[in-house]
Amino acid sequence: MKTQKTKSFKGLKMLLTALICFTLNFSSAFSQTVTPGWHFVNPSPAPYNNYQNIYSTYFFNNNTGYIAGERGLVHRTTDGGKVWHKIPMPVTSTLYKIIFTDNSTGYIFGNNGNILKTVNGGYNWTLLTSGTTQTIRNAYFVAPNIIYAVGGSAGANSLILKSTNDGASWSTQTSPASQNLNSVHFINANTGIASGNNGTIVRTTNGGANWTLRASGTTVNLNGVAFRDNAYGFAVGESSTLLFSTDAGLNWGIQTGVSGSFKIIKFKDATEGYLGGPGGQYRTINGGGTWIQINMTLYPNDISFPVSGNNYYCAGNLSNRGIAYSSNGGANWTPIDRIELGGVNLNELQFTSVNSGFALGSNTYLYNTTNGGFNWNYAGIASVNSFTINGSRGCAVGNNGYIGLSSNGGNSWTGQTFGTINYYGVSFSSSVNGIIVGNAGSVLVTTNGGANWNVRTSGTTQTLRKVKMLSDQIAIAIGDNGTAIKSTDGGNEWFDLTTGTSFNLKDIHFTDGNTGFVSGNGGTLIKTTNAGSTWTTVSTGVSNSLNSIDFRNSTGMIVGNSGTILISTNSGTSWLLQNGITEINLNGVSMPSDNIWYITGDSATVLRTTTSGNLTGINYSNFFNIPDKFTLSQNYPNPFNPATKIKFDIKEPGLVKLTVYDLLGRAVATLLNENLTAGSYEKGFDGSKLTSGVYFYKLEAGDYTEVRKMTLVK
C-alpha cells in the first residue's frame, strides 16, 4: 500500500498509526459522467435523445472495457457492463475503432482524421496529429510502436496511414485504390490486407511501402477482413458476401451458405470466429470451413475477446443501441442493455427506499426495481397514467376510469373501473383517505382506502394533472392553463386559486403543511408559503417544461425537458442549473435519502447519484483536467474556528473516504464515504461541536492513503 504521511504525523500513538495503515477492501460500481455525481444506470450505454451507433468495443477482461461510437461517444465499464461511465473527449465527431496495445496505451480513430491516444488506461485521451482530415474507419496494431490505420472520404482516394513511433507521427502510404477502405488486418509485420468499398482489396508484403490491388470477384462494399492464421483469411460485406483466401490474401474466392449484410468478421484463434451484421450472425469452430447461424441479439459492428476472462463482447447498431456478451464461448449472447424497459419514456418516479422504486412508462406500464435502478421489471399493472405508494397503500389511475389498488406497497395490484373518465393524478394522506383527479375537472374521493369512490364537483372544466393531499382535510389540485384548486374538507368542496400563470402545470410538491412548489411548462415555477392561498413566481432561468419536483430537507430538485436539472440548496429560494448531463427529456425525480437520488426520462433513461449530485458539501472544481496523481492538501484556514476547507485530488474513479480523527485515533467525523469520479474536490468541515485541539484528517482512495494535521482553536 502506498502511504504518505506528513512530518507532523510522526510520533502519534500506536493506536492511530495502526488505524491509518489498515488496508481497505471494497467493491463498488463507480460512476463517471459529464457533470459529476450522476451516472446512467439505464439505458446503457447511450444517454441522448437518439441512441448513438456503437461502432467499436475493447475489453481487457470480464469486467473492464470500452465502447466508442457516434458524437464522440466513449464509455467505460468496470463491472461487465452494468454501469457505463462516460469519458470526456476532446472531439464530438463519430469514432469508429478503439484498440489498446497494452493495459495503459490505447488509440481511437474516427471522422475528420481524428486519432486519440491514452497512456493511463483510458481515463484521459489526447488528440494526435494525423496529417489528414479524412475519415479513419479501422486500425491494426502490428508490433511494438507500429500501427496501421485505413479509411477515406467522399471524392478522395483510399487512405492508409502508418505510425512507427506509438502514434507520435503518421505517414501516408500510397494506395492503388480509389475507394474508401473499411478494414485492415496484418498477418505479420510485413504482410497486410485491407478491404473497402466496391469490392476493393489491397495487399502489402513489405510493411506498407507498396500496396497492390487484388481481384476480389465482387463489386459490393467489403466491410471486414480477418485472417485465422498466416495463410487463411476472409473478407465480408454486403449482399451476403463472404470471400476467402488460402494464400495470405493473394487470391480470393467466394464462399456460400451465409446470408446477411455483414459488417464484421473476427477470429479469436485459428478455429473460432464470428461474422455478422443486419440479417445474419454466424459462428465457426473449424476455422471457417462451416458457419453456424447464431443470434447475437444485435447487429454487430465489432467484437472483443478479452485478454483474460471467458466473456466475449460485441457492439451493435442504433436500432439495438447496445452491447451484448457471451459467457459460454459465443454460443449464446445476452444484451447488456436493460431490455425490460425497451425504449419507452419514463414519466413518473417514486422510490420507497434507497434501492426500491417504481417508474411509470409511456406505454402505461408500471415498472419496479429493487437494486437501485440497474434492473427493472414489470410491476403487474398497466393502463396507468399516474400512481402513488404511501406505505403499504398503493393507488394507480389511468384511462377509461381505471383504478388499481395495492395493499402491500406495490408488490401486487387489483384493478377496478369507475366511470369512463381519464384520470391523471392521485394522492393519499393516509391508508384510507385519497383523491383522484382527471379530465374536465373530474374529482373522486375515498375515505375507505379505495373500496368506494364518490364523485365531487371541482368547479373547473380544465384537465387536472396532479393532486396533493396535505392532510386528511386539505388538498390542492393543479392542471392545464394555470389551473389550481383547493379543498379544506377532504375533497368534497373546492375553490379556485390564483396562480399568476396560464401555462399548463405539471407537478406539485409540499415541503411542509404551508410551503409548496408547482412546476409547469415554459420554465414555470410558483411557490406558496400559506398552503396555496397565494402564489409567487420563482425564477428558474429556463424556458423548458419543468416536469417533476422533489425535496430532501432543504435541498430540492426539478427536472424537465432537454435535460433540464435544477438544484436548490436553500429550500427553494434560488435554483442552480446543472448542465451537460444529458439532452434527453427528464420526467421524474425521487430523492429517497440524503445522498442517493434518481431521475427518469425519455427512452427509458434512469440516472442515479450516490453523492447528491456532488452537492453535499463537495465542490467539484476540475473535471476535464483530471489530476495525474492523488493528493491531499493542507486544510485552509489552519488553525481554524470553527470551519475549514479540505482540498484533494483523485486520480482514478472509485470509493473515496475522508475521515477526521482525534489524538487518540478515534474517528470523530466521516466527511466523505462515496464513489467519486477522477477530479479535484473541496470538502468543508465544521468543528463547532468539537473541543479545541489537534486533529488529523485522512484520505483513502484505493491503495492511496494520506494523513494531515489541523488545529481547531476556539
Describe the structure.
With 714 residues, the protein is mostly beta strands. Among the domains are: 2-25 and 629-712, Sandwich (Immunoglobulin-like), CATH 2.60.40; 346-614, Methylamine Dehydrogenase, Chain H. Helices cover 1% and strands 44% of the residues. The chain has one helix and 65 strands. A hairpin with a 7-residue loop joins strand 53 and strand 54. The two termini are 37 Å apart.
Largest sheet: 5 strands, mixed
User: Residue ranges: pLDDT <50 for 5 or more in a row?
Assistant: 1-36, 44-50, 338-342, 615-625
Structural class call reads: mainly beta
CATH superfamily of one domain: YVTN repeat-like/Quinoprotein amine dehydrogenase
Percent of residues in helices:
under 10%
- What distance lies between the first and last C-alpha atoms, to the nearest angstrom? 37 Å
Total count of helical runs of at least 4 residues: 1
* Overall CATH class of one domain: Mainly Beta
Radius of gyration equals 30 Å
Strand content: 35-45%
Q: How many DSSP-defined strands?
A: 65
What number is the mean pLDDT?
A: 87
Give the strand order of the largest sheet, numbering strands 1, 2, ... along the chain.
1-65-64-61-62
In the CATH hierarchy, the third-tier topology of one domain is known as Methylamine Dehydrogenase, Chain H
CATH architecture of one domain: 7 Propeller
> What does the overall shape look like?
globular
Annotate the secondary structure layout:
Elements: E1 2-5, H1 14-20, E2 39-42, E3 54-59, E4 65-69, E5 74-77, E6 85-86, E7 95-100, E8 106-110, E9 115-118, E10 126-128, E11 135-143, E12 146-152, E13 159-163, E14 171-172, E15 181-186, E16 192-196, E17 201-204, E18 212-213, E19 222-227, E20 233-237, E21 241-245, E22 253-254, E23 264-267, E24 273-277, E25 280-284, E26 292-294, E27 300-304, E28 312-316, E29 323-326, E30 334-335, E31 346-351, E32 357-361, E33 366-369, E34 377-378, E35 386-390, E36 393-397, E37 402-406, E38 414-417, E39 423-428, E40 434-438, E41 443-446, E42 454-456, E43 464-469, E44 475-479, E45 484-487, E46 495-496, E47 505-510, E48 516-520, E49 525-528, E50 536-537, E51 546-552, E52 555-560, E53 565-568, E54 576-578, E55 586-590, E56 597-601, E57 605-609, E58 618-622, E59 631-632, E60 643-650, E61 654-661, E62 667-676, E63 679-686, E64 693-701, E65 704-712
Parallel strand pairs: 1-65
Antiparallel strand pairs: 2-57, 3-4, 4-5, 5-6, 7-8, 8-9, 9-10, 11-12, 12-13, 13-14, 15-16, 16-17, 17-18, 19-20, 20-21, 21-22, 23-24, 24-25, 25-26, 27-28, 28-29, 29-30, 31-32, 32-33, 33-34, 35-36, 36-37, 37-38, 39-40, 40-41, 41-42, 43-44, 44-45, 45-46, 47-48, 48-49, 49-50, 51-52, 52-53, 53-54, ...
